[in-house]
Amino acid sequence: MKLKGRVTFEDLGAGAWVLEAEDGKRYELRGVEGGKLSEGARVEVEGDLDAGAVSTAMAGPALRVKRWSPR
Amino acid sequence: MVHPLERKRDVTQGRSKSVSLRAVAVGLLSGALLACSGGTRHDKRTLAGDSHVGRVPGRVVVDFRDGTSPAVLAERAAAWGVSLRFNSLVGPDDGVALADNVADVEALLRTIRQSPDVEAAEPLLTYEAQGFTPNDPEYSKQWNLRLIGMPDAWEMSRGKGVIVAVLDTGVAYETKGPFVRVPDLKGVRFVAGYDFVHDTDHPNDDNGHGTHVAGTIAQATNNNEGVAGIAFEATLMPIKVLDASGSGNSADIADGIRWAVDHGAKVLNLSLGGFGYSRVIENAVAYARLHGAVVVAAAGNHGAGTVAYPAAYAGAIGVGAVGPDGTRTPYSAWGAQLDLLAPGGDKRRGEEGGILQATIARGEPGKAVYASYQGTSMATPHVAGVAALLFAAGAKTPDEVERALYAGASGGGGWNAQRGHGLLDAAGALRALGAKTKVDWQPLAASAAILLLLLLSLNPKVRPGGVLNVLLDPKLLLPLLVSSVGFFVLRVVWQKWVGSPPAVVDALSLPLPDWERIVFGRGRLAHPLFYSALIPLMVALPAVAWKGFRPVAAGIALGFAGFLAYAAWTRAPGLSWLPFSVLALPWLVANAVACAVLARALLSRREKAA
After folding, report:
1. For residue B195, what is the enclosing H or E element?
2. What residue of A is the nearest CA neighbor of B276?
């Protein structure tokens, strides 16, 4: 699936990068290195939902990122 | 013959009498409902904690008028025959002075209080914090421990000997290779754990989350270093199921749960969650419960009315988070599977609003730090720690632990989706473990109020008598008690003469609508058919022909009416398959009304009158 939105770091549990998508949902991003994302950046992400994923941040369904680019 | 005018007056009087009786009935009903609602108020606990107050013998504190001069003070001291001095440098301003070596305190107080210069005089009082105060220097920053009543709880239990498994990113428990043991875990007991991520025997922490969580459960406490933990005499079992980024998969978590249980863990802390249902993890949680272990899991940080897995599985205690003010944080999840709230921190107020424990710096396994975290991850180990205290204090089964946690939780008024059973209270839970069975009488009050309304609504010709006459008829009262408050005598007797009652006795001593637990087992949600007019209707069938059975059927119907009305009023518990506000509430109200109508029909003596 392809999603557009804004990324933000959530300081919850061990912390996680979250995509606040334009569809109004929040996804916890997997497979992206935090160092390359910046707070509030608008991005376009392509990835798959990982229903079996479990985390300490528990901020939303996990999105395993294949490709992403700044918008 | 009665004069028409007089008859009219009679009628008016009669009506006004019945109107005033109805007013009384409405007043009583609203009174009963208010009494019921008392349980739903929020219980604000002070962070300062309780204190012991004691009198100091032979000393009196005198509050003179503000601005009293030392000369006046000396004059009074001479007149009363005591030595008087200002308490401190502010004495000449606020007038607070002390009298020492007083032989007869009461006699002196009587004399002093007659003096026009004196605003107040009383024995000198001392205040000291109650309970156990650990000497850890940063303990004063742990608002979370005081919020759940730890100073009192530590006087009762410290979790000695109970194994608590921390299924997380690992724990900084040993100094080995790039890893260090954080200093504030020195002296804490550990048993061997396992690393399911790398498949090794060394579940060290490469993230920081797991060490923080382990600290809340059992940080080295009263060791003059850092911060305190809840069950600091418990034994930790580190189980690594999450990688360095804090994420993991269902296979490792399920394996971790079973491994921990098989190696003696009595409490499992899962400060983790996901949004996909996993039969594999659900089965592992059921396995833990079956083998006598308590599973505590985080409700989730997505701020919505759905609880994350594994907290949402039957058999897991789902924990939401509160901030320093004791109210649920915006990030905390809530909903049908929420069981308890506990401190998770709220860093919108800065670092001091979070939960402070020893851990490693994020991504630096060799660097020990004290860090403030927030999340339902942090709330979960508070409950796990208290569960360990309960096991150490004599709880035998997960059911017993769970009951004590819920009975001790503050907030009262039963369960609801917004706050579960309330805010965790460690001291309350330990007291509940030792306490006798609490019987909830409020449904009975609701039943009595409904009975009063029904009797008033019946034509006097078919009314069976006064409220007390009807209520005290054993044929009606016993079924009413069984259906509204339960056959609690059974449990009390069992506890006294036999010991800890088995599940069946427990269920039988519950109000009749809760007997569903015999059929469906324990769960947080009640079965809608048991919480309905179905049972009273079935019981009423024989009463159609058999008049002598009518008081029994009426008692059952009345009890159900009161019980269902009370359930609707307190919004607890939730019903299976029915979202509460949309369907469950109207369902409860409609069935309570149906039961009341049924009871009215059974009470009416229409046939006799005819």
Report:
1. strand B194-195
2. A51
Distance, C-alpha B310 to centroid of its chain:
22
Split into its structural domains, chain A has a count of: 1
Q: Would you call A24 an interface residue with chain B, using a CB distance cutoff of 8 Å?
A: no
| Cβ B253 vs Cβ B282: under 8 Å | no
HSE-up of residue B500 (Cα within 13 Å, Cβ side): 11
pLDDT digits (tens, 9 = 90+) for B161-189: 999 999 999 999 999 999 999 999 999 99
Q: Give the span between the Cα atoms of B427 and B154, in whole angstroms.
A: 8
Both tokens of B426, joined, read 């460690």
The verdict on A26 touching B (C-beta cutoff 8 Å) is yes
pLDDT of B596: 94
Tell me if B308 and A12 make a contact (CB, 8 A cut-off): no
Residue A57 sits in which domain range? Answer: 2-70
CATH number at residue A65: 2.40.50
Q: In the 8-state DSSP scheme, what is residue B295?
A: E
CB burial readout B39-68, b (16+ within 10 A) else e: bbeeeebeeebeeeeeeeeebbbbbbeeeb
Confidence (pLDDT) at B435 = 56
Task: Indicate the burial class of B79 (C-beta count within 10 angstroms; 0-12, 13-18, 19 or more).
Answer: exposed
d(CA B269, CA A13) in angstroms, rounded, equals 14
ipTM surpasses cut 0.85: yes
Q: Which amino acid appears at position B382 of this protein?
A: H
pLDDT of B367 reads: 95
pTM for this prediction: 0.64
CA distance B51 to B44: 16
The residues near B17 (Cβ < 8 Å, ≥ 6 apart) are none
